[in-house]
Design a protein that fits this description.
206 residues; alpha/beta; 9 helices; binds 5-O-phosphono-beta-D-ribofuranose
Length: 206
């Protein structure tokens, strides 16, 4: 029989573990199929660092080191990891195989490839069979950054401090966009209206 959870018992559980074990204890595990994927996955690591979320980074290849993949995925929960970000390119089996060996949320980042521009990675990661989900992000840098932000949102349901860091990040991002409403004005390029009004003045003088 399935155990029935109610909100009160869940909240009681959360009260006992609402803080990470220590400020440096990794909550997010970032794994990638190759050192060549670091160029992409470093954006996940940087974003987590900016949000103050401790993470660990490892090369774990589904094809070249399958035993290590199994060991990583099966021990992650016990080691205190709460979300796994897995990036891979081509026949990108790492996120799916990791998800098959843990109940932790796994976020997949398709790495852009030379041959197929990452479409191969995207489809390999996204097309999981029903029953083993991988939260699949966009190809490349945007996907890596968003994987970290999504990890923060997941952790934010448990850690209020992380939720507030994420809220602050979003507010700053909005402010940055609003601060530069006209990119032409910002880089010194004259605006179309200013150019046409100068032309109009010339015509008047002639
Ligand atoms: C995948 O093969 C890796 O995730 C990487 O994106 C790709 C190429 O790996 P390398 O040949 O650069 O090591 O398993």
């Amino acid at each position: 029989m399935h155990k029935r959870w109610n909100r009160r018992s869940l909240m009681k559980q959360e009260q006992t573990k609402e803080r990470p074990r220590s400020s440096s204890h990794a909550l997010v595990g970032i794994i990638m199929g190759s050192t060549s994927d670091w160029e992409t996955l470093e954006h996940a690591a940087t974003t987590l660092r900016d949000l103050g979320i401790p993470c660990e980074t490892r090369v774990v290849s589904a094809h070249r080191t399958p035993d290590l993949l199994f060991e990583y995925a099966t021990s992650a929960e016990q080691r205190g990891i709460e979300v796994i970000i897995a990036g891979a390119g081509g026949a990108a089996h790492l996120p799916g195989m990791t998800a098959s060996k843990t109940v932790l949320p796994v976020l997949g980042v398709p790495v852009e490839t030379k041959a197929l521009k990452g479409l191969d990675s995207l489809l390999s990661i996204a097309q999981m069979p029903g029953g083993i989900p991988v939260g699949t992000l966009a190809i490349g840098k945007a996907g890596a950054t968003n994987a970290a932000l999504l990890a923060a949102a997941i952790l934010g349901t448990k850690y209020p401090g992380i939720r507030e860091s994420l809220r602050e990040f979003r507010m700053e991002q909005t402010q940055r966009v609003l601060a530069t409403p006209d990119p032409a004005a910002a880089d010194g390029t004259p605006r179309a209206s200013a150019v046409s009004s100068r032309r109009g003045k010339k015509r008047t003088r002639a």
